[in-house]
Specification:
Blueprint lengths: L33 H18 L2 H8 L8 H15 L10 H23 L11 H26 L32 H24 L3 H7 L3 H31 L1 H15 L7 H22 L3 H22 L1
């Protein structure tokens, strides 16, 4: 990588790009007028709220099931924002983001159908409820993740732009003082400490809730290979479905900070109905999403986000395997 700020003798500095052109650095916000940038940020946050699981959470809190028309409305709003960029400048740099959210909303509607169609795959799994369930569910989610990758490619993104690459494993960490890393340590150090730390915290919380016996812990040991396999697949699926598309489509127009927080919020809200779930689970998942998004942005790749996510899923799937056998 060359340093664009290096001194070049006998040459004038290149002129700044016009305000209508995006910045070359994918982590640098496009040069929109300040008022238009504020409006674009507001529109993007509005889309995150509308297309996320937040409306479904609202229906659940009042004791109602999610209306069947809601996902179609969410997709329609996203398409409307994409089209509004034709005449409304603040929405113009967000059209790829809006199209991505519309595609995701519609693809998630296909998930139950895919899951049902893939039921025969359960016969290929080793005996036991956990492996059979995961074989079907993760296969369906993998198809959704592959479809999202296809959407990003169709939108003109190179795979490195949406982090489908290992990345720089020892990239310098942007200091995170509150997380115990005040210096620019290499990412492998932060990734190992927080990867195993989050997994240990999740395991401890679940252990305190479930209080498994020694016999139950021993009984789950033969399932560890399946737990590791499906945890790694689930981590890849969720990174490519919920995080990479949001960051990739928002980083250039709005900057990496906004992209990071929006992806973390989108990921956390989606986990309200997950494990761990509820308000506390969603808040914890926002924090988790922030760390995983930070990993993607700073290393320009998938590995550390996938690694940390996999370890957390191992802790969660261990107790799921105890319950399902």
């Amino acid at each position: 990588m060359t340093d664009s700020g290096a001194n070049v003798p006998d040459r004038a500095a290149p002129a700044a790009p016009p305000a209508s052109e995006p910045a070359d650095d994918p982590g640098q916000a496009a040069l929109l007028p300040r008022s238009a940038t504020r409006q674009a940020v507001a529109v993007a946050w509005g889309l995150i709220v509308i297309v996320s699981a937040l409306p479904a959470i609202g229906w659940a809190l009042v004791g109602q099931s999610t209306p069947r028309w809601l996902p179609w409305l969410q997709a329609g709003v996203a398409v409307g924002v994409a089209l509004s960029g034709i005449w409304w400048r603040p929405a113009r740099p967000l059209w790829r983001f809006a199209v991505t959210l519309a595609a995701l909303s519609l693809l998630l509607q296909a998930l139950p159908v895919l899951t049902q169609a893939l039921r025969p795959l359960a016969d290929l799994a080793p005996s036991g409820g956990f492996a059979e369930r995961m074989m079907v569910e993760q296969s369906a989610k993998l198809i959704i993740a592959a479809a999202m990758i296809g959407v990003l490619l169709l939108l003109g993104f190179d795979r490195r732009r949406f982090f489908l690459t290992t990345g720089e494993l020892d990239a310098p960490l942007r200091p995170a003082r509150l997380l115990g890393f005040p210096r620019r340590d290499p990412w492998w150090k932060f990734g190992l400490v927080w990867g195993f730390g989050i997994a240990a915290a999740l395991f401890t919380v679940q252990w305190l809730i479930a209080r498994p016996s020694a016999a139950e812990l021993i009984a789950v040991l033969p399932l560890l290979p399946a737990i590791l396999l499906f945890a790694s697949i689930n981590a890849f699926n969720e990174e490519m479905t919920y995080r990479a598309p949001v960051i990739a489509t928002l980083e250039q127009p709005l900057g990496s900070v906004q992209a990071l927080w929006m992806s973390a919020a989108f990921f956390g809200i989606a986990h309200y109905f997950g494990v761990p779930g509820g308000p506390l689970g969603a808040v914890a998942s926002v924090f988790m999403g922030w760390i995983l998004g930070k990993a993607m942005i700073e290393t320009r790749g998938l590995f550390w986000a996938w690694f940390i996510h996999t370890l957390s899923d191992v802790a969660i799937f261990t107790f799921l395997a105890m319950a399902l056998g």
